[in-house]
Structure formats: C-alpha cells, structure tokens
Amino acid sequence: MIFSSSKLVPFGLALAGVLAAPMVFGAEDAAAPSSGTTSKYTYTNDIAPLIEKSCGECHHPAGIAPFSLTSYRQVRGWGKMIKEVTGDGRMPPWHAAAHVGKWSNDRSLSQEQKDMVAAWVDGGMPQGNPADLKTSEAANRSEWRIGEPDMIFEMPEGASINATGVVPYQYFETKTNFTEDVWVSAMECLPGNPKVVHHIIMFVSD
User: Fold this and answer.
1) How far is it, in rounded angstroms, from Cα 158 to Cα 161?
2) 78-87 in b/e burial notation, b at 16+ Cβ within 10 A?
3) Which comes out higher in pLDDT, residue 37 or 62?
4) Cα torsion 105, 110, 72, 130: sign
5) What pLDDT sits at residue 135?
6) Which of 34, 94, 159, 170 makes a 20 to 30 Å CA pair with 76?
7) Per-residue pLDDT reduced to its tens digit, 88-133
8) What local confidence, expressed as pLDDT, does residue 35 receive?
9) Half-sphere exposure of 15 (CA within 13 A, CB side)
10) pTM of the predicted model as reported, rounded to 2 decimal places
11) Distance CA 22, CA 7 (A)
12) Which residues sit opposite 186 in a β-bridge?
C-alpha cells in the first residue's frame, strides 16, 4: 500500500477474469424419500441456508471445490462426509484465530451448527417442504465479492497449469501506472479458470 499526506483516493483493486454463473440452491428432487427420518431439522429450513453461507463460495458448478452443494440431492448424497468434515473442523476452511477478533466473512461453524448438521444426517436427512426454501442471495450477488471495483488490472500474460505433477510458484507483476499516491481499500482476483486455481497471494507494492 502507498500512504501519502497529499491525495488519498479510495478504490478497490481487482484483477480481471471470468467468474462462473451465480449459484442457485434448488430443490429439484422434491420426491426424495422422507420415510424413516427423525431429525427436527430439515434441508430447506436449516441446512441449505448454512451450506450457502459457509460452503457455497466454493461448492458450486464452477467453484474450486471438487463437487457442488447447490441442491438437496447433492447435499444428501454427501451427507455422511459433510457430517465428518464439519464435525472435526476440516470444513469449512477457516484458519483465523478466534481470539484475534470477529471477521465479516467468517465461514466457520459454531459447535451448535456442527451439532445441527450431525443431527440432521443421523436423523435421515429430511428435505422438508421445498416451498420453504428461501431464495438464494447468491442469485443476486455481484461477480465481485468486494463490490464493484473502481479499477481493474489484467495480468500481463496467462499462466499455464499442468494437469499432473508439481506446480511451482509463478510470479506476475501488473503495473498500475498511477501518477499519484492512492489508498487501496480492497483487492480481489477473478481467475480465468477457477477449476485450476487453489489460491494466490497478492501484494500491492510501491
């Protein structure tokens, strides 16, 4: 970041790319069997909102996760594994130390939420009434999670990712060509192919 006592102009820094279509949490299999279910929790009222908030960022058709969790059928199919990985804290990934403070994008689950997922799975994973499924906020979400950026910069060249083998770190520098000091309030990268991007590290330097 560049700090100056002259002129500080707030803007969001972003890298241009292609983002997948917004995810929609559906209930396309309304006829899913519900006999033998004992859980007081249902997919439509309890599990779907939790999945969208804490898992939907990655688990959608063009996300970096290996499978989508955007419908009852998908979530039910992965139910036992979801119970396991949420129960032991592997998912959703969130590594910020709790004692540092609260984060607006905290996707971690409370113990009460973990217990709810476990009870839903153990209770037969009932769907509930499909009509109760709330409209997904993701359907109206901007392609930029930081909001519409004031400036967009593109990488000077594309990055090739091999299908197998070790992928070494690759370094790219994009010039801003600013003529005065500016204040960077937020920055985000939209990968051209989210399927092959696990993570990146971005810096703003003078």
Assistant:
1) 10
2) bbeebbeebb
3) 37
4) negative
5) 66
6) 94
7) 999 999 988 888 888 888 999 999 999 999 999 999 999 999 999 8
8) 57
9) 19
10) 0.65
11) 37
12) 12
One-character DSSP codes across 117-172: HHHHHHTT-----GGGPPPPGGGG--S-TT-S-SEEE--SS-----SSS-------
For residue 153, what are its two tokens?
């910069």
Distances (CA, A) of 162 to 61, 165, 168, 196: 21, 7, 10, 9
Distance (Å, whole) CA 147 – CA 192: 19
What is the rounded CA–CA span in Å between residue 169 and residue 166? 10
Question: Distances in Å between the alpha carbon of 133 and those of 35, 142, 186?
Answer: 20, 22, 33
In sequence order, the 6+-apart residues with CB closer than 8 A to the CB of 4 are: 180, 181
Angle (CA) 38 126 20, round 5°: 150
Tokens of 34: 């519900």
Tokens 């799975």 locate to 121
Please state which of the ranges 30-39, 75-84, 144-153, 191-200 shows the lowest mean pLDDT. 30-39
- What are the structure tokens assigned to 203, written together? 């810096």
